[in-house]
Amino acid sequence: MLGKFFQKPGKEEGDRVPPGQHLAKGFPVLTYGETPQVSTEQWEFRVWGLAKSATFSWSDFMALPQHEFTADFHCVTRWSKLDVKWTGIKVTDFMGLIEVDPKAAHIMEHCYGGYTTNISVEDFLREENFFAFKVFGEDLPSEHGGPIRLVVPHLYAWKSAKWINGLEFLPGEELGFWERNGYHRRGEPWAEERYSNAFGI
Asked: pTM value?
């Protein structure tokens, strides 16, 4: 399995691959439950909670500045893919469209299909985070989270929510789907924050 689908990082890649990770030869797809099929015409994005409620269309997002991003991608299931090339919109550019209460400290990411994951406002607002709608020059396929997903390169990939369609701003931390089911609250790859203390790790 290791030789066919994954490989150990070489010396030149070692400082880019977190502990316990192997390099994926392809771009694996891991999904819990069914894969939502959402067209750009149907897609909408909501903001609520400790923020002024607002709803955005696909055209609203596409009117924002678009950028090319190259980022490494680390999955908690111990594979990494280096230099993934995305097209998307900076989180910081999107944030210019909304009004957030200063009391907001955490965010619940909501997605089509019912998936949720939590992230602190501090982690969310990092300059390198973006909403991706293309990968390697092609429209983001549904199995990889299309039509649009969040990408948070500095955390394990379950925080980079696929099929994202909303942000709920919260005064304190609440746990999302995987966090309620034993995953770490934050998920920092270099610290191997894979699972919660409830799992004895």
From this structure: 0.90
